[in-house]
Amino acid sequence: MNIHGRHFLKELDFTASEWQYLIELARELKRERAAGAERQRLVGKSIALVFEKTSTRTRCAFEVSAHEQGAHTTYLDPLSSQLGHKESLADTARVLGRMFHGIGYRGFGQDRIETLAAHAGVPVWNGLTDEWHPTQMLADQLTMLEHAPGKELRDVKLAYVGDARSNIGNSVLISGALMGMDMRIIAPAQLQPTAEVQATAKRLSANSSAKIEVTDELSAVDGADFIYTDVWVSMGEAKELWHERLELLRPYQVNATLLRRSGNPAVKVLHCLPSYHDLDTEIGRQLRDMTGASEFEVTNEVFQQHAAIIFDEAENRMHTIKAVLVATLGE
Ligand code: CP
Ligand code: NVA
Q1: CA distances, 293 to each of 21, 243, 253, 300 (Å)
Q2: Structural domain of residue 52, as residue ranges?
Q3: Residue 134 Cα, ligand 2 centroid: separation in angstroms?
Q4: In angstroms, what is the span from residue 209 Cα to ligand 1's centroid?
Q5: With contact defined as beta carbons under 8 Å apart, do 160 and 216 qualify?
Q6: What's residue 191's pLDDT?
Q7: Does 56 sit in the ligand 1 pocket, CB within 6 Å?
Q8: What is the sign of the dihedral through the CA atoms of 216, 222, 228 and 229?
């Protein structure tokens, strides 16, 4: 498999075999690291990280994996660079492409990363846009494989519950359809993936034999191996939306009752993080002041019970982002 020199902009740009290759490479890199035998494949490479939204996991995953593979990173945000206020994305791309071997980007519309990719002349990697979060999907799928021993992705039943019109909802549906999974996307009608995204998932499932169900019925968690959720309000969304969003999604909280409804006593919970499972965040407290609720997309009880897998998932961001860097840029 050779994806050297390619961009990593969204799941749809890859075949199932290419995607599988990235997961396998991440596994191999994780094993090498654990054995203290990591071979550096990015020595002498320079990587720019252009982040227009905040990040903990994704930024750190890029920086640590690049460092461990021998590359150097430079972090740019709109406040400390000319990006946005003094220089267009296209011109920034043309400058960075002359100095760096690759560019990681996190920001708003997918059109922005497409612009960056069109002008950079070097590989561009998507660290989250409004529409897609593809590096997260590699980590999630690696985590599911690790926590469902003996199963391939096509044997895994995954229920995504919550805001399914977001980057995570879209990416979970499309990456699951690509890999032939049994997918249930459970959300109120207003927050289900668009007709276009659903049609794309159906088209992919014709090749992969994925099972796709998009519904507002919580009973669709029946038999799930994994239940996945994300925050109910994403970065960049207007505060004015919060009240309506919380009212719509309150019945879709991942809590003990929902887990019981799966009928699977061993059902496991995934969360891309960050999470509002308690009031230890400023936004969590603002949401409480607005709505009176103290837990949101997942209860603290369920979050803490499933913390081991959720933080494995967070760690896997590093191994999988490392795989993307090595596959597209490595020696
Ligand atoms: N899951 C994720 O992308 O986390 P960050 O926003 O911290 O990067
Ligand atoms: N949907 C969330 C994902 C964060 C990793 C957001 O965009 O804020």
Answers
A1: 43, 11, 12, 12
A2: 11-133+316-329
A3: 12
A4: 30
A5: no
A6: 98
A7: yes
A8: positive
> Quick one: how far is CA 218 from the chain centroid?
23
pLDDT of residue 260: 98
Could you confirm whether 106 is annotated as catalytic? yes
- Tell which atom from ligand 1 comes closest to the C-alpha of 133: 3
272 lines ligand 1 (CB under 6 A): yes
Over the stretch 33-54, which tens digit does the pLDDT of each residue have? 999 999 999 999 999 999 999 9
Residues 6+ away with beta carbon under 8 Å from 248: 188, 190, 191
Tokens of 2: 């050779």
287: confidence class by pLDDT, cuts 50, 70, 90: confident
Residues 195, 106, single domain; the answer is no
Q: Does residue 183 sit in the same domain as residue 321?
A: no
For ligand 2, whether the C-beta of 168 sits within 6 Å is yes
- Closest among 302, 220, 297 to 268, alpha carbons compared: 302
For atom 7 of ligand 2, the residue with the nearest CA is: 234
Determine the distance separating the centroid of ligand 1 and the alpha carbon of 207, expressed in angstroms. 31
CB 160 within 8 Å of CB 229: yes
Clarify whether residues 127 and 159 are in a common domain. Answer: no
Q: Say whether both 232 and 179 belong to one domain.
A: yes
- Strand residue runs (E) in the chain: 46-51, 72-76, 102-106, 124-126, 157-161, 182-186, 211-215, 226-229, 268-271
* Catalytic annotation present for 319: no
Q: E strands, 172-265, where?
A: 182-186, 211-215, 226-229
